[in-house]
Write a structure and sequence with these properties.
Helix content is 81%, strand content 0%. It is mostly helical. The longest helix is centred in the N-terminal third of the chain and has 39 residues. It starts with a helix and ends with a helix.
Length: 229
């Protein structure tokens, strides 16, 4: 029994080390995607970044494809966490759509994880296995995005909202090859349009809904029909 008790903590430590190593490999893969792109993210490059042997990597991921697919999931978790943290900061402040969009632009659409995701999206165009994984991941992320969006603004992120977020996607790609001043001007123009939409349509309609809602009867009073009876 004593021998078993001595071995148990050792097993736990080995499991902890294995989990930590796996996370380091995934982090290194994502960072490599950001800095070197999909083609440059080889198993050798990932191993070099965290100074582990190829055998260690193969213990966790049997192929490069498996490593990259798991990195896709890692990117989803990271993007979802960043998005939820951003939305949570606004939950008590009654934010405008423009306020939310600026925060998401700075913390999501210009982040390393977004560009790691973009590398995977482009690579998946000609890789059926990766494409299936990317599509599945995109669907899950979209649902988490929609849920958080509804909880903050009380509306579905479709129609003009969806078009607006597609515009942010386009600007994120544009900033890779256009002059910064041009991108900043386009972003400013987009935000001005969002401010107008938010002020004169979203919040105006919200006020109208509240004004048109029937006032609740004070407690202890009945309807006119009940009083007459």
């Amino acid at each position: 029994m004593k021998k078993e008790n001595r071995q148990e903590p050792s097993k736990v430590k080995m499991q902890d080390r294995a989990i930590a190593t796996r996370k380091r490999l995934l982090d290194a893969t994502v960072q490599s995607l950001v800095e070197k792109g999909y083609a440059g993210t080889t198993t050798q490059e990932v191993c070099r970044r965290i100074n582990v042997s190829r055998g260690t990597l193969l213990h966790h991921f049997s192929t490069r494809e498996e490593l990259v697919i798991q990195a896709v999931e890692h990117v989803l978790e990271t993007n979802t966490r960043h998005f939820q943290e951003t939305m949570a900061r606004f939950s008590q402040d009654n934010p405008s759509l423009a306020d939310l969009a600026r925060a998401l632009w700075e913390q999501h659409w210009t982040s390393g994880t977004f560009y790691a995701w973009l590398e995977l999206v482009v690579a998946s165009r000609t890789d059926p296995l990766l494409n299936d994984q990317v599509r599945s991941m995109g669907a899950r992320w979209a649902e988490k995005f929609a849920s958080a969006f509804r909880s903050i603004l009380g509306v579905e992120p479709d129609g003009p909202y969806w078009m607006f977020f597609l515009a942010l996607n386009a600007l994120s790609i544009e900033r890779l090859h256009s002059e910064p001043a041009r991108v900043e001007q386009a972003l400013a123009d987009l935000m001005a349009g969002v401010e107008f939409l938010d002020r004169f349509f979203i919040r105006f309609q919200d006020r109208q809904t509240r004004l048109e809602a029937p006032a609740s009867a004070p407690e202890g009073t009945g309807s006119g029909k009940e009083e007459k009876e």
